[in-house]
Amino acid sequence: MVNESAGAVPRWFPPRNEATQVLLLRHGSTIHSHEGRFSGRNDLPLDDSGRREAEAIAEHIGTLGPIDAVVSSPLRRARETALVLVDRVGGTVDIHDGLTETEFGEWEGLTIEEAHRQSPDALAEWLRRSDVPPPSGESFAHVEQRAVRARDDILSRCSGQRVVLVSHVTPIKILLRLALGAPPEALFRFHLDTASLSAVDYYRDGSSSVRVVNRTA
Predict the structure, then answer these.
(1) What is the pLDDT of residues 61-75, one digit of tens each?
(2) CB 3.0-4.6 Å disulfide test: which of 89, 121, 198, 212 passes with 24?
(3) Range 111-127 average pLDDT
(4) Which stretches within the chain are classed as H helix?
(5) Burial level of 120, CB count in 10 A (0-12/13-18/19+)?
(6) Are 101 and 170 in contact (CB under 8 A)?
(7) Which strands sit side by side in the sheet containing 197-203, from one edge to the other?
(8) Active site (annotated) includes residue 27
């Protein structure tokens, strides 16, 4: 488990004890990705570009050394990306519901401009506060709670291993933000491409070291 309150004594170099290496992989593209639409709990498949992206990043991950576990969101676009990966690195895909994308409620499938026209005040408040959900949706604060539970569960089961988590923009941004000890508004300062790879090392003393952000193949 990562101790975020006491957690990490400030240090220049990471600790020398064994790390759990977590590779955070965003799924490949779908039709929503290209159109800039809110894409939450839908079950869209990878498009042709997304499958090529998944194959390219899987090839890259295969050069990094043995992968001990691959854990995926249950949504189709993540599972398909994970299956491409295990075809390259071996193993099986475990599913963890905590890695699921945000429930965007009434904004699902809309562009940001369409959401603004539909509910401008709600959108402005949502962009300002992590505890405000979209209409009929899920707040980032709630996503953080389940993403942290998922992270801690996976770290306890995969201690000292190299594990790939195949997930979505929001859970990955949240885990990166927490690993950096950054404030909630930092969530809006990251850009993550489809099929991009980020990486965090988690240490037994509760500290973490962000190694990679948004590497694409």
Answers:
(1) 999 999 999 999 999
(2) 198
(3) 96
(4) 31-35, 48-61, 76-89, 112-118, 120-128, 140-157, 169-180
(5) exposed
(6) yes
(7) 93-95, 69-72, 162-167, 19-26, 197-203, 208-215
(8) yes
Is 59 known to be catalytic? Answer: no
CB atoms within 10 A of CB 106: 15
In this prediction the pTM is 0.93
As a whole number of angstroms, the distance between CA 120 and CA 47 comes to 31
Catalytic annotation, pick one of 27, 32, 96, 168? 27
Domains of the chain: residue spans and CATH: 19-215 (3.40.50.1240)
Main-chain phi, psi angles of 212, to 5 degrees: -145, 145
**Count of CA atoms in the C-beta half-sphere (13 A) of 130:** 16
Q: Tell me which of 53, 101, 138, 144 is the catalytic residue.
A: 101
Q: Are 27 and 195 in contact (CB under 8 A)?
A: yes
List Cβ neighbours of 186 (8 Å cut-off, separation of 6 or more).
177, 180
Q: How many CB atoms lie within 10 A of CB 37?
A: 21
Here the tokens at position 44 are: 């869209």
The token pair at 140 is 């980032």
pLDDT digit string (tens) for 23-73? 999 999 999 999 999 999 999 999 999 999 999 999 999 999 999 999 999
Helix axis angle for 169-180 and 140-157, nearest 10°, is: 70
With a pLDDT cut of 90, the percent of the chain lying above it is 85
